[in-house]
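Record 1 of the preview.
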Amino acid sequence: MLLAMVIGTVVASAKSERTDGLKMLILQPLDLDGQPKGSYVVAFDAVGAGEGEIVLYASGSSARQTPATDNRPADATIFAIVDTWDVGGVVKYEKSKGE
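->
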């Protein structure tokens, strides 16, 4: 499981039929302090995430373990939208109630 922020979308009109109906989002991976780290990731969205949200995503063969991506060519899949996280009792992120 990895933390990331949704920073954009990808639209591809010509693609494998096996990916029809799956939304693709651009993710910026985050460290435990919420700071950007590493390269951008394009992931399928299995939970209805939106731009600006913090999400958990799986990569590799684990990305194909959601009902939305089962037996599909997925290398990264968003499987949760984060409400809060803390490290050592210190809250690092809390989703605002208005989102």
